[in-house]
Amino acid sequence: MTRVLLTGASGYIGKHITLQLLNQGYEVRASVRKLSKSSEVRDAVAPHLLEISYLDSRLTFIELDLEKDSGWNSALKDIDVLMHTASPFPLTSPKDENDLIRPAVEGTLRALRAAKNSGVKRVILTSSVAAIYGRELTSGALAYDETMWTDVEHPVGRVAYTKSKTLAEKAAWDFIKSEAPEIALTTINPVLVLGAPLDKNFGSSISLVERVLNGSDPMLPDLKFAIVDVQDVAKMHVYAIKSENTKNERIIASSETRSFVEIAKFLKSLYPKSKVKSAQAPTFIIRLLSLFDGSIKPILPQLGKPMNVSGSKAQRLLNISFIPVEVTLKESADYLIKNGFIKG
């Protein structure tokens, strides 16, 4: 039985990956920052397992920290595949960008060094489209694709989160090239990940749907989002393990693009009595507000920016058909309403 070390197992994507790994016959050693999180992961995946009887024997937990060396070598002992999903994902940019960049880069390298020391030959790394779109499209290109890299000097690329994902992925490829050519690396680069969580403890990406349903903003900025379903992201990670043609490849996870206003209008059509507001704010107002609200500043470079992202490589290499965006939005909204995250 193939044994996988999955880092970041308690995350929104991590729980979905854990579930799919177990349902497809893998043995999972799941890393969490605190072992107290292990029951959260077990409880999240258990109701969705095809066979509950193997849960105790095929899902075990280990405590790991991205910023500490201890435990990594023992965590990777007798492991066949490292699946590294753990990385900081904040709602707002930190005051010091290194608070994001350092754990992202050093944590990735720490995991890869331990994989090399333990003889692991297969690594699947969760990166992000943030490592791709922080730049202008090349002449003649209609969409962002895997050949492109974020320019960390570009206004979009300078944002702390975008920069952290870019530098972490580049560090991974540089490490494989210079120090561990025996390791076959695949990076999965998701766009905005939405879809129903497996429990009430989930990350910040789905907060966009929560924000729209709660009518938190009187008007919406001119932003566009490439969207992918969390189930498809998990599926791509798991499929990549056995897929020879994904070795040493970057693969974008992206279904379709929708604007903030389009998302709001769709949700309003599903829930006409909701507090959803769908008017678009003039860009000059957003820029003015950013002078008083620092949390707005990171989005300024993306105002009015097209977000055409190609998912064709994933379709070709992994034979995946992406879940339509409207299905993903509906399932996200249904979950939030059912579980009391939307104000009455």
TrEMBL record:
Signal peptide (UniProt feature, chain positions): none
Family as reported in the entry's similarity comment: Belongs to the NAD(P)-dependent epimerase/dehydratase family. Dihydroflavonol-4-reductase subfamily.
Swiss-Prot/TrEMBL keywords: Oxidoreductase
One Gene Ontology term of the molecular function aspect: oxidoreductase activity, acting on the CH-OH group of donors, NAD or NADP as acceptor
The protein's name: Dihydroflavonol-4-reductase
Pfam families in the cross-refs: Epimerase
UniProt cross-references to InterPro entries, sorted A to Z: Epimerase_deHydtase, NAD(P)-bd_dom_sf, NAD(P)_dehydrat-like
Annotated NAD-dependent epimerase/dehydratase domain residues: 4-247
